[in-house]
């Protein structure tokens, strides 16, 4: 997921990128949450969740993760 973010270059800044969560789903996909510096958010970070297909070794989707909401 980190390499995927870095491949976007100017679109995403990997400044302060940090691994926050990893979850293996029942279907075999990985949910990976990364965070980045963002002074506009409540804790100074923005969170993005990536669904990774381990067989194809690629990101299937990316969503914004709200850490205040239930998992």
Describe the main β-sheet briefly.
Answer: 4 strands, antiparallel
H/E series, N to C?
A: HEEEE
Q: How far apart, in Å, are the first and last alpha carbons?
A: 19 Å
Structural class of the helix and strand makeup?
Answer: mainly beta
Give the secondary structure arrangement, pairings included:
Elements lengths: L1 H5 L11 E7 L5 E8 L7 E9 L4 E7 L7
Antiparallel strand pairs: 1-2, 2-3, 3-4
Short summary of the structure?
This protein has 1 helix and 4 strands, in the order αββββ. With about 70 residues, it is mainly β.
Describe the protein in words.
The chain has 71 residues and is mainly β. It contains 1 helix and 4 strands; from the N terminus they run H-E-E-E-E. It has a 4-stranded antiparallel sheet, with no helix packed on it. Strand 1 and strand 2 form a beta hairpin.
What labels describe this entry?
globular, 1 helix, four-stranded antiparallel β-sheet, 7% helix, mainly beta, 44% strand, 71 residues
